[in-house]
Design goal:
This protein has a single domain, classed as Aminopeptidase (3-Layer(aba) Sandwich). It is built from four helices and eight strands, in the order E-E-H-H-E-E-E-H-E-H-E-E. An eight-stranded mixed beta sheet has the order 1-2-3-4-5-6-8-7. The model has no long low-confidence stretch (mean pLDDT 94). The protein starts with a strand and ends with a strand.
């Protein structure tokens, strides 16, 4: 499954893609310098664990963020797991340093949120970030999320869907 925005293509990772990534193998799409990020590997390991437990996250998995102008992977975005019984889901993202500051993270997050908030199983999307990660906080706000909790070293953001 792919989600498109003006400058990006979000490509859902398959279980085989996740295994290849964790084994250090790239796919047909070239990677930008600095990819995969540490967060990429952590998220991929979480997705692999879901698959090992027999849980298919379906479209609520990890997506490669691919710059359409040159077809290069510049980061990832995705869900930690499928929506829970309350219809809540958490999202995370990362963009390689050389592509930061160009609005790619905001564009990718807006694209994913628009899709998720139209999904009948989703009531709310959450994200959290370190207190000192001001760039991520700006991305979350620009994408329409609002601060709902300040937990000392973490800030939690949320956006509600039509079901809320």
């Amino acid at each position: 499954m792919d989600l498109l925005s003006p400058r990006l293509r979000l490509a859902l990772r398959t279980p085989a893609d996740i295994r290849d990534l964790l084994d250090g193998r790239g796919g047909a799409t070239p990677w930008a310098s600095g990819y995969p990020l540490d967060g990429t590997l952590v998220a991929a390991a979480m997705q692999a664990e879901l698959h090992e437990r027999g849980i298919d996250p379906g479209p609520f998995g990890q997506y490669r963020v691919i710059r359409r102008e040159d077809d290069v992977v510049i980061g990832d975005i995705g869900f930690h797991q499928p929506p829970d019984e309350l219809g809540e889901v958490s999202v995370g993202f990362g963009i390689v340093p050389e592509a930061r500051g160009r609005g790619y993270a905001t564009e990718a997050l807006r694209t994913l949120l628009e899709w998720a908030l139209r999904h009948p199983d989703v009531r709310a999307v959450h994200a959290d970030t370190d207190l000192v990660n001001l760039a991520s906080q700006r991305v979350l706000v620009k994408a329409g999320m609002v601060l709902v909790a300040d937990e000392g070293d973490r800030k939690v953001y949320e956006i509600l869907g039509e079901r809320a």
